[in-house]
Protein 1
Amino acid sequence: MAGISLNNVRKTYAGGVSAVKGVSLDIEDGEFIVLVGPSGCGKSTLLRMVAGLETITDGEVTIGDRVVNKIEPADRDIAMVFQNYALYPHMSVYNNLAYGLKNRGIGKAEIDRRVREAARILEIADYLDRKPRALSGGQRQRVAMGRAIVREPAAFLFDEPLSNLDAKLRVQMRIEIKKLQKSLGTTSLYVTHDQLEAMTLADRLVVLNGGQVEQIGTPIDVYENPASTFVASFIGSPAMNLMEIERSGEGWALSRGEGLSLTCSLNETSAILGLRPEDLHIIEGDGAINDPLMLSVVVTAVEPVGAESYVHATLGETGQEIIVRAPGKQHFEVGSVLKVAAKKEKLHFFSSETGKAIALEGNLQPA
Amino acid sequence: MKREHIFDHLILIIGALFMIVPVVVAFMTSTHDAVSIYKNGLQLTWGGHFEETYRAVLTEAGGFTKSVTGLTMLQNSLILGLGFAIGKIVISMLAAYAIVYFRFPLGTFFFWIIFSTLLLPLEVRILPSYEIVQGLGMMNSYSGLIVPLIASATGTFYFRQFFKSVPDELVEAARIDGAGPVKFFIDILVPLSKTMIAAIFIIMFVYGWNQYLWPTLITTDETFFTLVRGMKQILQVWIGAQIPDTNQAMALAVLAMLPPVIIVVVFQSWFVKGLVESEK
């Protein structure tokens, strides 16, 4: 077991396309790190560079205390789980698990012990004689995990391992992967484009965008304090409401029209305001408002999902769309006007030029 | 629906008869003795001389030098057919492996060079090929029969297409599992190509077995004659001044057709599998 550290790692392809533009990251021993980002953000490339399947243009990858830039994948002491499982179709499950160990020259008895142990943990002991094509998607996924476990590697690398499974199985396997990783205590690097998977699995999240790190932090930290508008809109579902605002006299106004009342000051002339749907609460009737933010919105659609409803609305005539999370049993009429408000500590501000978060401490005062 | 079925079957049955009847006629005729064939022509009934005729063509030495039997020719044909098929598969698999999995300068160019040899069948280059084999002193030898024909553009092309359809993740998984290029080829790629190999084996075996022109040029020593090439040669001598041994000619023809037929019949499911589906 070992930590992994990336030091200013870059990947530039022969055509000059730059997929990873200098990523530095320290993964502690036993930590579960999830790389998350939209497709094309370089997350898979980064993982493949750690695995040794992709050459490293610049920078250093260290596993344990070895720089592995020039070391073959097989000698890096890692195991990888692929999106399409990549099981050897002509080998039985047993041989799929045993193949890597045989190539390492490990004794028959030891191979047998490890394979049976992994099969027991993953509950695939009954299928050891079957060929992969006789297995369901979930079982194949387990075999792919088994192949990683038997290696007893310093680190697991997962490349979107759940994206070929149906939704129900995905949730189940997600929990199993998490449990397994905790019980084995093996350092893991997991790539996904699914922010929910990322949130639920990670000890720490790495949000990537355009080959660069946007933010590194625990899921809750990233959720509560997104470092940029990109992270704010990527993490969380439904996404954070973002709207451009401008200073207007004593307070602030929407860049695109009426409907906002924000009574606090900020040392900027314009900014992007971010509001999580669940941080907005609906004000009944003419109730007194102590909150610094008040919005007057017109309901355009309601999505009841049971425990809660997502109210889609526009801000006055502006066309600025906003989503508010409301309790499930409440009824909303399309076309009706709602007043919503948010507490001061729930407001997020981002620079309108760079999209980076603006620190609020000492910056945000009541007007 | 039903009428269409009958019509489909009718066409298939006619097609099958068209292929089979001449073979049945040849086989039935070969079981009669030479005299009755001479008197009554081709036969469609069992003649009862099966054993003696076939024993004669298989074991009695014939030919100009009286040194070659049907059995030797059968054996030579088998060696040619097997050597031809196995050799072509080995060479074309290795060539396709190199082309698909290794990045070397002008790789695609070399593939198209190999592919373009399809435009140059044996008949076109027969004189230079003969010249080379003769110069190397490979006349009248199995290697002379097999090696010059062993390169296969068709095989290379088929295997290249197949290897290209093998997912990259499999190569990567094998790399992480510590399988080098040779191990990957033997442990993963060859077993995956099983059905493909079977299909190509059938085509190539039949093709090799039926070679006529090349063995005719390369073998002058009758002990290296193959069935297809030797049949006529041997019989001319047997005919002599008496009634022609049509029964023996037919028996040899049946023997020459039998192995390819057996191989195709036995492996036909593999054959179809290899060409239409792949285990991945």
Protein 2
Amino acid sequence: MAKVTNVLLVGVGGQGTILATRVLAGVLVEEGFDVKMSEVHGMSQRGGSVVTFVRYGDKVYSPLVERGTADLILAFEKLEALRYLPYLKPEGTLVVNDLALLPAPVLLGKAEYPYNALDILKQKVKDLVVVDAAKLAEEKAGNVRTQNIVLLGALAKRMDIPPGTWEKVVSENVPPKTVEANLKAFWAGWEA
Amino acid sequence: MKKLLSGDEAIARGAYEYGCTFAAAYPGTPSTEILENIIPYKEIYAEWSSNEKVALEVALGASLAGARALVAMKHVGLNVAADPLFTAAYTGVNGGLVVVTADEPSLHSSQNEQDNRNVAPFAKIPMLEPSDSQEAKDLVGEAFRISEEFDTPVLLRITTRIAHAKGLVECSERQEVPIKEYKKDVAKYCMVPANAMKRRVFVEERTRRLAEFGETFPYNRIEWGDRSVGIITSGISYQYAKEVFGDGASCLKLTLTWPLPEKLIREFAAGVEKLYVIEELDPFLETQIKAMGIPVVGKEIVPNMYELSPEILRQKFFGAESAPNQVADLNLPTRPPVLCAGCPHRPVFYILKKLRVPVMGDIGCYGLGLQPPLEAVDTTICMGASVGMAHGFQKVGAWSGLDRRAVGVIGDSTFFHGGMPGVADMVFNKGGGVLLVLDNRTTAMTGHQPHPGSGITAKGEPTVEIKIEDVVRALGVEDVQTVDSYDLKAVEAAVRHALEYDGPSVVICRRACALLKGLPDLGKAVINQEKCTKCHACLRTGCPALVSHPDGSVTIDQTACNGCFVCGQVCPFGAIEKVGGGERG
């Protein structure tokens, strides 16, 4: 079967992975791939763990990614990076935001947050990219709300797609006044 | 032009392209985005109906008036709409009528898992199942055509991974379909016994003709490959089968999955050595194919609950193990969904927990009130169940002399959907139950759709705002109180009063959903660390904006806080202060 690339975007409901997903989808369509993506809406979005599967290639059947087959995972939060680690290929790349969002059981003292998440990831993932998206968004783009695009930039560098396509689609999908900040954010992530 | 659309978006596009002029729905995951994406088309009248039964009746009325009509709902919504559906199966249609059911295997956001394919033979209406977004769009057109040609409502059945999965769709221009003439025809539309008995015969004859139609329906197709294995499949399971078996197996892809094309199935079965059925949930195809006397393997291998996936099929058929990076040993904390920061349901559940009263819950965000630390909800059944159950619970107490006081908790949209008959019942039957209507001014869980109490239509036009106070008074409830959900003392006093009141009592707890746009700025809550004793009383509200640190201190995440100040009301030391914002408006 023709090659299909598998990508996961994982995070926490309300973190706004939607814009990043929309841009990624737009880029893949622009590049002429067959694309399928799947996510779950509804209750899980109320602060729950969320995952978006993205698959692209010449011909894609299933919208779901199987464990052990993801070429790339973009994690908006560290615990979620660990949770979805079984999806990563042995030689796959994981881009993780250096951010801890404490889930309800941790806030209530009923569970421990894995504060050593990055250490575990370093042991288990050959190609790990850690991005401090909040810092880069603030320092390089001057707008802390561009964190998603910073992370997307870091993902984009690891995909074989011309940066010009990314710039075009980012520009089309963010509010006109924030295009410049978001493009700076994209490049900050690319170079991270 | 090709667009990347979800199945829901594609169905909306199909409604537009295939001349639909009328659409109705009640929101419910994973069907909500169908109507949401129809609303912007000015060529189509669209409404959020008060419930699914009404939505189907409205669409049936539109069909009889001559319009192509589409109605959409989630799987449990079709239970609510079953009554009109089962008789619309007899009356048939005038303009085409498409009924979309969006099922949710793995119940991501539902109270049960049900396979609504079973409704097609039960109601005796044809059913189409798309396998991707392109088919979801195309089959809206086919469904309208079948509906009009065979004089029947058509069930378009999708699942979460069709509804919420995106794929490329070739989009075209709209084909205008004129509104048909209406002719009075009581023999067809008045289902009194004498007429219904005759239509019963028509339904059987129609089913026979539909089965014949399915034999050559191009969306039912054989893909010949290796003949040692043959797979019969439909819907999303087709994609999973292709993913796992590739072109290494022959495949019969069924799209009109009721009634089934028996000759086509026999032809396929005769052409392969070993025959499998791959389908999600119930053995719907398998049972029918076995009844044809065709040996086939299905649920012996393929699970009969939860979503299927390529991974499950690979494991079941080939015993393949994957996943090199197991994390089970890390014992990671779960991340369940929670009531949002500033959610107006939180203070109500905080009080209900304090009062230790049984709470009959309902369907909506407030179902999350069952989770720690609030743990205030005792039951979750279906839309509108809260009030009837609270009444029944209380009646046992009145009957036996035991204390069986209970509180029903229902949202505003759910109240209009299914709560009103329960209130009428409680009043009529001299009940003494308590109903709390958590009026957050919207249908929150599904993403803020308007309802009869919102004062705005689906199309954004101002309309009559039906007041819940007026409704419950009109239904005969004399003890009606309205409180601000954010005001803990007021909520507690109102609930205590209602529990003591001799007779049916309603408390309307009103405060807009904190996620609604355009709300007044309430400022932020900040913990004065000098006054804080680290007693953690605030954490018992379960607000996700409160962050407890390893040293026992607590801070408030200022980007998450919505300024409801419920934490400030529970702090025994006055350590939580309000910064900025106006008065609680």
